[in-house]
Amino acid sequence: MIEYNPKLWTRIIFQFGRSDTMRQLLPAMLGFGAYAAVITFLESEVVHIHFKSTSIIHSLLGFVLSLLLVFRTNGSYDRWWEGRKLWGALVNVSRNLQLKTIAIMGRQDREAVVKMDEWIPLYAVSLKNHLRNKKTESHWLKAERHQPNQVATLMFGEINAWLRNGQITEIQYLTLNQDINQFTDICGACERIKNTPIPYSYSSFIKKFIFIYMITMPFSFVEDFKYTLIPVLMFVFYALGSLELLAEEIENPFGNDDNDLPLDALCQTIKKSVGELTETWSTGLSHGV
Questions:
Q1: How far apart are CA 287 and CA 281, in angstroms?
Q2: For residue 62, how far is the Cα from the chain centroid?
Q3: What share of the chain is helix, strand, coil (3-state, %, to 5)?
Q4: CA–CA dist 132, 142 (Å, integer)
Q5: How far is residue 138's CA from residue 119's CA, in Å, rounded to a whole number?
Q6: Are 274 and 121 in contact, with CB atoms under 8 Å apart?
């Protein structure tokens, strides 16, 4: 994810990153510019056909297309924001689980706290890699199986052992169990976003609509704009094409694109937060607290 200062307008306007739509659309923009030049030349110098009456129809179609693109962009952003909320919840539940583990088990089982200190960040990393179709290297995990579920199984098994051994009460077990359940709920919600893309027919229709709109636009406005139609057509395509590209990029927010969620940073936040809790507890033990 790109970090930036939204107040630095000049830098934002003139800086072109890897994900900037201008860079991606430039070949097509030049193609539409050349196409507009040919249509303008033929209409002005050769055939002299008047298409002005079609401009009203084209304007109406432009309004319909804008509504479709707004709906498309909003739908993709909703998926991006839901993913961000899910990972925010993962950060919180990770901290809560380690806090409760320390409070409940800290004075009777040091190894239990150390295990959770390793497993909680491991769950975040395994979920991140799972959403990116990668495998996590760990002696706790097998590559051929669902790795986040494997980590959750370790945590569930641990608290069940505490209950069987009489180390925790049933109420404490239910409290810990509720937090671990949230891990699997978050995983399932993330998988739902990743595995349910925008329907192909809808995405295909918008792309075809944009293409047909652009190749027919010169016939509607060539008489009014003449050769100035060339930059106008290029700019209109830049605006419409950019909205579609941005929607495509953020509809799956768990990848490695510049505008996707900063999952690596969130995993580091979880590891740091849990580690600090464990370190504070360990320091307290050494001082007899």
A1: 10
A2: 29
A3: 80, 0, 20
A4: 17
A5: 11
A6: yes
What's the CA gap between 249 and 253, in Å, rounded? 8
CB neighbours of residue 125 within 10 Å: 21
Asked if residues 33 and 234 have their Cβ atoms less than 8 Å apart, the reply is yes
CA separation for the pair 70, 67 (Å, rounded): 5
Residue 4: how many other CB atoms lie within 10 Å: 11
Q: Which of 17-45 are b and which e, b meaning 16 or more Cβ less than 10 Å from the residue's Cβ?
A: eeeebeeebeeebeebbebbeebbeebee
Q: What is the full per-residue pLDDT of the chain (289 aa) written as tens digits?
A: 555 445 555 655 556 555 577 788 889 999 999 999 988 888 777 776 655 556 677 778 888 888 888 888 899 999 999 999 999 999 999 999 999 999 998 878 888 999 999 999 999 999 999 999 999 999 999 988 999 999 999 999 999 999 999 999 999 999 999 999 999 999 999 999 999 888 888 888 999 999 999 998 888 888 778 889 899 999 999 999 988 888 888 899 999 888 889 999 999 999 999 999 998 887 765 555 5
**CB-based contacts of 25, cutoff 8 Å, min separation 6:** 237, 238, 241, 242, 245
Name which of 36, 38, 34 is nearest 47 in CA terms.
Answer: 38
